[in-house]
Automatic annotation (TrEMBL):
Pfam families: HODM_asu-like (PF11927). This is DUF3445 domain-containing protein. It comes from Belnapia rosea.
Length: 307
């Protein structure tokens, strides 16, 4: 296995101190920036291998008829990774070699699910969304870092149903998302980042939404040590052959103490938390520790350097 110094993890801060706005927040992403590889790659890939071996039904799901799109995802990554990271990935005929893990994958090997092979190459979770008359449908997915949801419960459903529990999604985002999925052009990559504050740093979290009961063990003194900013860097791109959309999710989990030390960030996050509508706060389980979180952030903001 190759010993290398990998890039530092990017810190995403996708929140503002201002009125709550629910929007897609898409920006263009260059091809070179589509897939992230950072310092956590070795540990995260080991975790993904364990989940695929031991919790397969919790992380993998696919609809019949998705085989071509799944194969297309692997082919796309098998071309992209050696082109963008030639020191770490190399093609030798049908074999793709990963110098970071020491693994080699025969891309033509029968019996392998190509989407699972793809998921063993990158830190991103991979979801395939198929256009359909009733709205785009989640057709196949490997999700090793779910933010409190189960892929087995969402597979085969239109996105409007997938997000049914998200406050305001139906009236504010459902139609724009469906239109975007229908219109995105092959060759274009779009990106967005969302955020939440959680009490568990683990990437793999199947449950925990809609918790509403205050936990008095969280205090303004200890919240910074016990809470984490969790972000999802999401990308979207059309698969040109199948016509499906590949949706990737790279989850980052930062200790609150780390991000609050950055200039102006504690005050910004406190403002964003205060601006969340009550329904959205409940969805994110904030009532469990909201007051402790705000007390800690306000104190951190007084100590941190200004932005």
């Amino acid at each position: 296995m190759q010993q290398v110094t990998l890039p530092k993890e990017v810190v995403y801060l996708p929140f503002e101190d201002g009125p709550f706005r629910m929007a897609m927040g898409l920006v263009a992403c260059p091809e070179a920036g589509w897939i992230e590889i950072d310092e956590h790659y070795p540990a995260e890939m080991a975790g993904r291998r364990r989940l695929l071996a031991e919790r397969h039904a919790d992380v993998v799901a696919a609809c019949p008829g998705s085989e071509a799109a799944r194969a297309e995802v692997l082919a796309m990554l098998a071309a992209h990774l050696p082109a963008q990271f030639p020191d770490w990935f190399r093609r030798e005929g049908s074999v793709l070699r990963n110098a970071l893990t020491g693994e080699a994958f025969d891309l033509d090997a029968p019996g392998e699910d190509p989407l699972e092979v793809a998921a063993r190459l990158v830190q991103e979770d991979l979801c395939i969304i198929r256009p359909a008359e009733g709205g785009p449908v989640l057709e196949a997915a490997v999700v090793c870092a779910p933010t409190r949801w189960r892929v087995s419960e969402k597979i085969g459903r239109p996105l409007m149903q997938v997000h049914a529990a998200v406050p305001f999604y139906g009236e504010r985002l459902g139609s724009p998302v469906d239109r975007f999925m229908a219109q995105i052009k092959a060759g274009r990559v779009a990106m967005r980042v969302n955020w939440s504050v959680v009490d568990n740093p683990a990437l793999f979290q199947l449950s925990g939404k809609h918790r509403g009961e205050l936990d008095p063990s969280f205090t303004a003194e200890n919240a910074g040590e016990r809470l984490y900013l969790r972000t999802e860097r999401q990308t979207f791109r059309r698969l040109p052959q199948s016509g499906a959309v590949l949706f990737t999710i790279h989850v980052h989990s930062y200790p609150l103490t780390r991000i609050a030390a950055l200039p102006g960030v504690a005050a910004r996050l406190a403002g964003a938390v205060r601006a969340l509508p009550e329904e959205m706060g409940r969805y994110k389980s904030l009532p469990v520790y909201r007051e402790a979180l705000l007390g800690w952030l306000d104190a951190a903001a007084r100590l941190a350097p200004a932005a």
